Structure formats: structure tokens, C-alpha cells
Amino acid sequence: MGDVKVKRRKKILALTLAFALILGSGARLQTLALDTEEGAVDTAAEVSTGIQVVDGEFCFYSENGELDEEKTNELREAAQVETEIDPLLKLIGEPNDTEYFGQGCWFGESGEETGEDGAWYYDNFQVYVYKTEDNTYFMGAEALTTQKSDFRSMLAALVEHETAAASSPEVELKALFQYVEDEYSYERKVGFEPYDGWQEDYAAEMLSDMAGSCYHYAALYAFLAKEATDYEVRICTGTTDGFSATSWQPHAWTEIEIDGKWYVFDTNLDKYEADSALKYYMLDTDSDLYEEIYKVEDVYEVSLETTAEDGGASGAGADTEDESEALTAAATETEDTAEDETEAETEDETEAETESETSTEVKVDEEGEDVLTLDNRTGLTFTEAHLAGDVLTLVDEEGEEHTFSEVDKDDIGSPHLVVYGSFLAIKYTSAKTGKAGRLTEEGDEIVFDVPQTMTVISTAYVRSGAGLDCDKITVADKGAEIKVLAETGKWFRISLKDGREGYISKVAVIVEENLSSTETSQGEQETETETEPVPEMVVVEEDGEYYRYLRFTPAEDTIVKINGEPCYVMAGGTVSEGWKVLGDKLYYSDAEGRLKSSETYEGIRFGRNGAALDSTNVSLKKLTLQIVNSITDDTMTQREKLSACWSYVTRGHISYAGKYPDLNAEGWQRAMALNVLSSGSGNCYGFACAFAALAEEIGYDPEVVCGRVSGSRDGAADGMTRHSWVMINGYHYDPEAQWAGWCAGIYGYGSYPVAHSVQKVVAF
User: Fold this and answer.
1) Which residues of the chain have pLDDT under 50?
2) Which CATH number fits domain 539-613: 3.30.200.20, 2.10.270.10, 2.130.10.10, 2.60.200.30?
3) Which segments of 628-701 are extended strands (E)?
4) What is the pLDDT of residue 625?
5) Could you give the 3-state DSSP secondary structure of residue 66?
6) ∠252-304-479 over CA atoms, to 5°?
7) Which residues are CB-contacts of 129 (< 8 A; sequence separation ≥ 6)?
8) What was the pLDDT predicted at 199?
9) Predicted TM-score of the model (pTM)
10) What is the assigned CATH class of domain 446-529?
11) Does the 168-302 domain belong in CATH 3.10.620.30?
């Protein structure tokens, strides 16, 4: 690989790092740092004075911003892992706040002392500790920044991430509306008092905490809408009777001007008022409903213009651009090039970026005929694009070739050409399977002149080689900083603290900010990174030995004990709250992995060992878990999951068979659902119960309707016949009518569209 190509790719990597933001989680952002020959350089902001933590190591900076080696060495000598913290505490002072994660088991020399794992929070770093009855021990430190400081950059990246596939501003507004409604929960705010700048503060708090009041919902959606469109946006505060027809309560909502008319976009009311279903999305302010439920008291305009106090930048785009320029400058310094060469490269890059603005598509030809169009999101310009067999070759303006193999032109849908670290990749949706896929540019491993410091965004295994078949060395945790030595198309080669080297999937490190969440399959991500969130500082016992989850990485799901209690640990040492199936047994674990035992939960009885006792409910639960996990993933909203369940029931998995239940028998609906989902056949009662069971599994509270509709099957004189369908939140779903075709499309109807009578409605 030529020097020009390596230098150009280093520039792309530097620009990519500027957008490495953690989206949609409450995790703290880590400061990105690049090591240069002159020492550690903070590329996210100017280094402040006093005590800092850089790459997990304590540093002390003097008033002129220079590293004070004497005080730094003193700090580092005191900060020894698994030693008493008192010497370090004298140097860093008392923390602003402390937090303890619960009882643990000491793994030091004695192996006997029990204690608590915790974290101490300072202004710009946090210290991890282990506290026993007699002493507190130092366990590590890391940089601590707040999401609010990067609010504008995160806002821009989030909008790009959620609306990349949108075809118009209105589609963008709807995508963002559903994102806020689906991803954020409610947290009450008592005694709201407006102040100058409260709108941005509340929006930043919502991003950070993933929960907030109606004021937070209104503020976050307002800023997202403003970032995404050129429309005028405002936040209205006042009162509403939307939650209760008998009382008015304080409320806030978003309004947007489109084509000269103002519309309400109320994410909070739409989410929590019963049966709203986009009722408060783009509600005309001149409508009768608006007059009935809203009383406006104050209006606050929303702007992304930055004040002089913020340094004179103009919005989130400027913040991102400044950070990008800082990263590019830092990377350029490490190349040890002459000043005139640096200026020439900068001019070339600027020219390329300008040209790319007018060329966002790449037409791929095969034997002179266009066969594929790539949405170019790389910032590069390509002069040629050819497909020969299954090999795609792109030629950029510098004459460098980019080669992709195993290209199936008939399977690639909505392809996006993106920067993937120092390489290029084509992201697409398979026309055959509907799943997301990625083709990565071929090329030799790139070894960086200076190791790059990056932040892990998704907990992942570190392996002995660049492949999923290579041995697992350890686990890299979400939020951890890693030293990247080299890069291939799909993997980073990194340096471990013990001196070894390993490989981590780039999916776990790179935020693909130019792709919407719907374009990336969760199943694909798990295949490439094998990741799940893990708790901090949890200790497990197995065969008399104690392990921390960060060190305990079983290859398969297993049952261990935490402080003598049965605990469900997933492959890789992760835990999560929810239902689990291991072998032929059903379990339910809490957020720390502890199993329900010797109790009844959601109608299911658990034994002393944590396994559910056999029953119809248990068998049905195991079956619906299996089906739902096979047809949905965590990237889907609840509405999208319901649609997948509907497709499962109505498109070939169930055939017709005359199975009539005893409607007076207790639990007939659940027994019918188990029978139909197990056997794959049933009549209208079976279709309804099967769909209700899957809907319940994804979080809805369905009801099964038993009644009569127009028809001759029963041969009744009134021209009616027995029938069954489903109601969810007052809306009607008829899967058997859809399957049989006698009345297709009864999906989410506000009223049942066929002449009918209702015999009984049974909660599933």
C-alpha cells in the first residue's frame, strides 16, 4: 500500500474520530487522546490545570498547561491498584459524590474479607474503590466528562443517525418523534421554573439521563427537530387535560411551523395518554382537539445559534467541525511532514470535500451498463466504478483503487458507501433476507506510526487474531479507552495493559453515524462483536472461586451463585434482566443476574433452584420467547415487533384446522395459544390466541374477543357464525381474516369493520 494512500486514510480516521459519540445511552463520554512524540495531547479540549486522568493514569498539569512530572509521579506512586487509598486521597482530596454497587467478595491476598465495590466522583474523573470493614482500596480511575458539554455535537450525530434514510423533512420529523417516544422514559419534575437557557439544559439532561418530564420531552424533540430541518420550532408551556378529562395539569409540548401553519408534536402526551397512537403527532393548532386540551401560557423559541459567551461558534455543526479540525491537526503533527506539504495536503482535502458536495452518488457499471448506485457518504470523489463478476472496483480521484469481493448485485438494496475507520465499506439491506449487511474494502493491514487512543462503544471480546474463530483473550468494556496499533478491514489490533496484543471488532469501536438505526441489524452486530452490556463490579462464585464479571467469561450461558443466590450468567460473563431459557428450563433474572426462586412471578411458579415449575404458562412462555427472539431484535420498536408477530401468524406458520375451545374453561386462551403455536394449526380462535400470546411477549396487554360475524359456517338462521379476534389498547386485529383473505387488513382498526356481535372479551 502506497504512502499516499496511508496518509489519506489517516486523515479519514482523524475525521471519523470526531464523530465517535455514544448515542442513545446514559454512559459518560470518554476524552479521546492521541499520543505523540511530545507526549499525551488532549484532542477534545484544551488541557486544564490541576489533576487529570488520561488513559487511566493520573497526571498533574501546571498553570501553563505543561505536565508537572514530579507531581504526576507522586500521584501515580500513590495510585497502586489493590492498595489502601489513603495516600492517594491526601493528594486528590475528598470526592464530590460516592456510589457503591453492592456487596462483593474480596479477591486480594486474604481471599476472605467481604466488602463493597464503589466509585468516587470528582470534577473531571472518577476513582473506583473496594471498601472492606477496615480499609478502602484503590481499584483504578478514568476520565469523567458530561454529555452536556458535548450536547451540540451529540445532537448533530444523533439526528444524522436516526434520519439517514428519511426522504423529506416530514419523514425526518416522524422518525425523530418515534425515536423520542420509544427510547425515553418519564421522570416527574415538580415546581418547574423557567430560566434563561432552560430549554437546552433540559434537552441535554434528557440525552444524559434517558428520562425526564414533559418539559424534557418537549425540549429534546424541539432541538432534534431544529437540527434536522429549517422549520421554525418553539416550546409551549401551559396546561393540558389530555391525561385526564376532569383536570388540567402543568404541561409542555413542541410546536413546529410547516408551510405557514403551526402543528403540535407532543411526544410526552402521545406516549402516555391511553390509545394515542400518533394522535399528537402533527396536530393542527387550529383544530378543535387543540382548543379542547391545550392552554398556552408561555412560548419559547428554539434556536441553534450560539451566543458570544459560547465562543462565537454557530451551532452544533461548528462544534463538530472544530473538533474534527483539532483531530486532523493532531494526526497531521504525527506524520512529521514539512509545513508546505501539510498545507498542500490540506488544500487537496478541502478541494475533494468541495467536489464531493456535488457528487453524492456513485454509478457502478458492468460491461458498460449501470447496474448499481451507491449513496456516497465518504467525502471522497470517485472517477471510476466497475463490477466484474463479483468483484467491485472503485477508483478515487488520486488514482487509488478500492476493491470489494463477493459482491452480489442482485442482493444489495439501498447501498451506502461509508468510511469504516481507515477503510471503506458498503452498508446495504439484503433483498433476499431483509437483514443488514456490510462489504468491507480489501487491503493490507495498516500500522499506525503513533498508536491511536479510541473509546469502546459496545462491550466486546478481544481475540488472539482477526477472526471470530480466534481464541478469546479478555473483554473490552463499554467506555474503556484502548490503544489501537493497526487496522484491517474489520478489525483493530490493540495493545493490552499486560503487554500482549489482541484484536477487537471495529463494530465495537466505530459509531457509524451516517446510518439510521433501522439500517443496522442487531443480529449482525451480535455476530460480529458478541457483545452485551455488563454491570460494573459484580462478583460471582463458582466451585469455591470468586470472579468479577469483567474477568469471568463463560463460553455458554450458565447458572452460578452470587453470595449464595442462584444467578444467570450469559456467555461472555454478561447479565441482564428478563426471561431466560437454558436447556429445557425457564428462568427469570433481575438486573444483577439473580434468579427468581421459591416464589410466583407473572403467574409462573419458581422452584428453589430458580427454574420455573412445569405448567401451561411455562411451556407457552418458552415457546413465545423462542419465536419472538427469532423474528425481532433490539433495534426494533415495539410497533415494529408487533408487525413482525402479525407476519409470523398470518404468513405461513399456521394453517387452518377446526379447533374449538371450551370458552367457559379457565385459561382456555393460553392453552389454545400453546396448542396452535406448537402444532402450527388452528381456527379463528387459534389464530387470535397465537397472535395475542406473541403480542404479550413483546409487552402489550392483549384481549381475545369471542363473538359472531356475518357468515354461513355455523348454518345459523341469523346469517352469523362464530368468530374470534384480538384487541390491543382498544384497537382491533383479525389475523384469521387476514390469513383467509375474507377481510384483509384489520390491523389496528379503531372499530371492527364487519357486522358483528360480541359474546365475551377475555384478557389474555
Assistant:
1) 1-48, 105-107, 109-111, 145-149, 306-359, 513-542, 544-552
2) 2.10.270.10
3) 655-656, 681-682
4) 93
5) coil
6) 85
7) 85, 117, 118, 119, 120, 136, 137, 138, 139
8) 92
9) 0.34
10) mainly beta
11) yes
666, 638 in Cβ contact below 8 A? no
Q: Is the dihedral of CA 153, 161, 479, 89 positive or negative?
A: positive
Task: Please give the pLDDT value at position 167.
Answer: 75
What is the chain's length? Answer: 764
List, by residue range, all CATH 2.10.270.10 domains of the chain. Answer: 539-613
27 in Cβ contact with 39 (< 8 Å) = no
* pLDDT of 229: 92
Distance of CA 492 to the CA centre of its chain: 22
CB–CB of 440/392 below 8 Å? no
**Which residue matches cell numbers 454478561?**
574
| Residue that the C-alpha cell 429549517 belongs to | 230
Enumerate residues 6+ apart whose C-beta is below 8 A from 383.
395, 396, 397
Across 644-682, b (16+ Cβ under 10 Å) vs e yields bbbebbbeeebeeeebebeeeeeebbbbbbbbbbeeeeb
- Helices of type H across 550-635: 616-631
Q: What is the DSSP string of 717-730?
A: TTSEEEEEEEEETT
User: b or e along 435-456 (b: 16 or more beta carbons within 10 Å of the residue's beta carbon)?
Assistant: ebbbbbbebeebebebbbbbbb
Quote the CA–CA distance of 391 and 137 in Å, as a whole number: 57
User: Residue type for 403, please?
Assistant: T
Distance of alpha carbon 420 from alpha carbon 406, whole angstroms: 18
- What is the location of CATH 3.10.620.30 in the chain? 168-302
Q: 625-763: what CATH class?
A: alpha beta
Amino acid in position 559: I
Number of helices (H) and strands (E), helices first, in the chain?
17, 45
Report the pLDDT value the prediction gives residue 457, as an integer from 0 to 100: 76
Q: Where in the chain is the domain with CATH 2.30.30.40?
A: 446-529
Q: Which helix (H) or strand (E) holds 68?
A: none
Give the dihedral of Cα atoms 254, 259, 261, 263; nearest 10 deg. -30
Residue 670 sits at φ, ψ, to 5 deg, of -75, -40
Q: Which residue has the cell 480516521?
A: 13
Task: Give CA angle at 451 (448, 452), nearest 5°.
Answer: 100
Do 473 and 463 contact (CB within 8 A), yes or no?
yes
The residues, any chain, with a CB within 8 Å of residue 433's CB and separated by 6 or more, are none
Task: For the chain, state the CA radius of gyration.
Answer: 29
